[in-house]
């Protein structure tokens, strides 16, 4: 099988997913900045909490959402969740990664097979290295907080 | 008259979020009979609580939502199931409906979207 890396149109889908998430879930827009490419995924700076979605099917790799505690505290409040525990921060970080990956299926189709999220705190962050192509980081700010979506996927090209 | 609702999602945050919306005055008389975090547990709870309505995630451990919908539709054909999922492609929605679901809400959802979808499910 051959693989191809993502192109700018593919990355735009994830940027739009970030905007949609914050608009719908919190009624407060995020400012999504220009994506940049990392040739070394291990250079990613992780935030306090991370949610990782591994993908398979017509793809290989992972989509990771990384955010500081303050951002997740306010997202939970916007969702009406009063319990501000690490357990809930991990849960919501994984769920956001799930929502952003799931929304990308509008563009990629059901071939983007999504696993249940794996969440971690900063020190326990797992760097997925399932894809051979470059990783893209989509930085975004919401209120005073900065978060990152890391998209590290290859598309399988079937002959 | 009371309606019985089972909420199925592997995220505790999402389960609680949906549960909190049941205080909306447009959704009177809904009793939450269970909260399930995976498909296998959902089938067990559906069998024991016999809900009128279910909100159902699709991407879950142990048993995915599509399989779960098929099992519950076979057990409780009168139960109406609203899929609440991040999977946004049309093929997934159509397959869930074919398995026995009655509606589909995409995550992320606004409170108003969820309430309107539940009202449609119950009408």
Structure characterization notes:
The complex is a heterodimer of chains A (159) and B (123). Chain A is an alpha+beta fold. Chain A has one domain (3-156): Chemotaxis protein chec (3-Layer(aba) Sandwich). Chain A is built from four helices and nine strands; from the N terminus they run E-H-E-E-E-E-H-H-H-E-E-E-E. In chain A, strands 1, 2, 3, 4, 5, 6, 7, 8 and 9 form a nine-stranded antiparallel β-sheet that branches. In chain A, helix 1 (8-26) packs across helix 3. The radius of gyration of chain A is 15 Å and the shape is globular. Chain A starts with a strand and ends with a strand. In chain A, 45% of the residues are buried. The model of chain A has no long low-confidence stretch (mean pLDDT 89). Chain B is of the alpha/beta class and 123 residues long. Chain B has one domain (3-122): Response regulator (Rossmann fold). Helices cover 43% and strands 22% of the residues of chain B. Chain B has a five-stranded parallel β-sheet with strand order 2-1-3-4-5, with helices on both faces. In chain B, strand 4, helix 4 (90-99) and strand 5 form a beta-alpha-beta unit. The radius of gyration of chain B is 13 Å and the shape is globular. The mean pLDDT of chain B is 96. The chains are: A alpha+beta (159), B alpha/beta (123). The A-B interface holds A 20-21, 24-25, 27, 76, 79-81, 87-88, 91-92, 94-95, 98-99, 101-106, 108-110, 114-116 and B 10-14, 16-17, 20, 59-61, 85-89, 91-92, 106-110, 113.
CATH superfamily of chain B: Response regulator
Mean pLDDT of chain B: 96
How many beta-strand segments of chain A? 9
The overall number of domains of chain A is 1
Number of DSSP helical runs of chain A:
4
Class per helix and strand makeup of chain B:
alpha/beta
Strand residue percentage of chain B: 15-25%
CATH structural architecture of chain A: 3-Layer(aba) Sandwich
CATH class term of chain B: Alpha Beta
Poorly predicted regions of chain A are none
Characterize the overall form of chain A: globular
Distance between the termini of chain A: 8 Å
Question: For the largest interface in this structure, which chains are involved and how many residues does each contribute?
Answer: A-B, 29 and 24 residues
CATH homologous superfamily (4th level) name of chain A:
CheC-like
What Rg of chain B, in angstroms, do the CA atoms define?
13 Å
CATH architecture of chain B: 3-Layer(aba) Sandwich
């Amino acid at each position: 099988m051959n693989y191809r890396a993502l192109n700018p149109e593919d990355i735009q889908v994830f940027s739009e997913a970030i905007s949609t998430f914050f608009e719908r879930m919190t009624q407060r827009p995020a400012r999504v900045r220009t994506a940049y490419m990392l040739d070394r995924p291990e250079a990613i700076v992780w935030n306090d909490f991370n949610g990782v979605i591994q993908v398979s099917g017509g793809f290989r790799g992972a989509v990771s959402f990384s955010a500081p505690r303050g951002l997740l505290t306010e997202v939970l409040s916007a969702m009406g969740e009063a319990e501000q525990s690490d357990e809930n921060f991990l849960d919501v970080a994984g769920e956001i990664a799930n929502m952003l990956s799931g929304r990308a299926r509008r563009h990629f189709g059901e071939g983007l097979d999504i696993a249940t999220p794996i969440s971690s705190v900063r020190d326990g962050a797992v760097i997925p290295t399932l894809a051979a192509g470059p990783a893209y980081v989509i930085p975004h700010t919401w209120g005073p907080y900065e978060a990152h979506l890391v998209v590290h996927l290859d598309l399988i090209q079937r002959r | 008259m009371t309606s019985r609702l089972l909420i199925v999602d592997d995220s505790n945050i999402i389960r609680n979020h949906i549960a909190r919306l049941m205080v909306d005055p447009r959704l009177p008389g809904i009793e939450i009979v269970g909260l399930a975090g995976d498909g296998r547990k959902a089938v067990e709870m559906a069998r024991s609580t016999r809900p009128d309505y279910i909100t159902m995630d699709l991407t879950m451990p142990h048993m995915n939502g599509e399989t779960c919908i098929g099992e519950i539709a076979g057990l409780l054909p009168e139960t109406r199931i609203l899929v609440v999922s991040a999977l946004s492609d049309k093929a997934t929605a159509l397959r869930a409906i074919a398995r026995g679901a009655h509606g589909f809400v995409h995550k992320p959802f606004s409170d108003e979207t969820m309430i309107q979808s539940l009202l449609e499910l119950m009408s």
